[in-house]
Amino acid sequence: MLSDLRALTRPFRIMLYSALALQALAGVSSLFPWLAIARLVDADPAAYPFWLGVAAGGLALWLFAQTLALHLTHLLDARLCHRLRSQLAAKLARLPLNWFVRQGESGAARALSQDIQALHQLVAHAPAELVQLAVVPGCALALLAAVQWPLLLFALIPLLAAALLFRVIRSPRLRPAFEQRDRAFRQLNDDYRQLAAHPLLARQFPGAGIEARARQSLRGFLAAFHRWLRRIGALGAVTQLLLSAALSAGWLLLGARWLVPNLTLAELALFVLLLRSVAQPVMAMGHGGDALRAATLAAGRIRALLAHPEIRWGGRSTIASAPQGAALQLSDLGCRQDERWLLQGVNLAVEPGEWLAIVGASGSGKSTLLRLIARYSEPDSGTVSLDGVLADAFSAQAFNQMVAVVPQENTPPAMSLRDNLTLFVDGADDAQLRRVLAALGLAARLQDRLDDTPSLSGGEAQCLAIARALLARRPLLLADEPTSAQDQQNRERILTALAQLPATRLVATHDAELCRRADRVAVLAEGRLLAVGTPAEMADHPALLAALAERQEADDEV
Known about the structure:
The protein is α/β, with parallel strands linked by helices.
């Protein structure tokens, strides 16, 4: 815990050390009122003003130091959270896409929101509580030992037993119970988020799909929570009982009667008051144990994320390709998720200006291949070269000047139609925008709404993404199922626009007509490149026929 805390708070260490020093001062000064009250029990009346002054001074010093210490730790928490959110936002922009795939839909949200929020206990409260745990009991025990050390040893038995139980609760033997509970809760949170985001699917398929997963996650969490409660609940209850004021006072009176029959009232009062000062920091750490553990795990995850390998970019800032096309070379390209290869051993050369259709059954690796070429993900083996230059030798700006991507998911940004079309191109006039809209069948509804933010259907959003890529005039176009949401008339428009484009085009598709018009067809199956050839050469290839039949069956169902 301390190593993660030191690493995260290193830029703010002066503020942190100041807060810790103030908390130590507050801890020591908090003992003076109890000492003064104990002395007032049998003090001479002439000494009352002195001890009242000690109590008031200690209380004032405690209030000042404690308030300032907590102010500093909460200010540190706010500044650290701001810094980490900025760092994580920048980091997420540089991470390969496969990180997001592995983390699931809520991975980025967990890092930016939940993990940052969990740090509050670790940063704003834990340092002060740890200092108080070290300083206050130490001073109180030293004072009580000087008064009656045999009684002190007896009085510490419940506290030591509670500390031992607390250690058992946090031991590696019981850690799996916490981990299973936390893992089940995260799964429940993710599945309920899916359920809330897709109410129509839940209504359409009651008791199945995402609703069934949410119910299963709820049952899994309840089972994990009950297992945790059976193993931890009794130990936690006994710990709280041992630290309670009633048991502490009763145990102290028993020890006083047995060990020190002549104990004065002032000494008894001092023991009662200061033993609570010893127990309270331990109780605070116990109550905040779950939050502290969650914060510790969050700090570890944040540090791991900040250290995660990023997409590598080089220093080459110029490109050699013209809009007429870039030469593409894939050498032994591969990508895996966990231990499973999504794509393996792909070797392929594409000539400048060539139109290559990439075909395969769902899950064959088509989208993965396009993501690797687009540098959304880093390959686990092999290389991608453009015009003879390794893709990772280009700067991010230069690479983006070479490649345009039409993804399978085409939800447009919330901005005007004009801004959407010109995301990747400067200086396009209205005539150019209207021409590309007309070429894709969007002119009738959208050509006079360039400054509006219209609501688009799935097919229109797909056409908008294609129009954006056509306007960008990049040497290499990567398109993933660009005709999947189109009727026959719009498919023809898109195929015509692709055929007229001078750039090198790689299109993942199940569209038989697109395959017939392409210069070559590449067939993928189970992450491997089976064959490449002209449409005539590939017409009877079994894997090609199976992939096209898959699309035909989907169309027939619709």
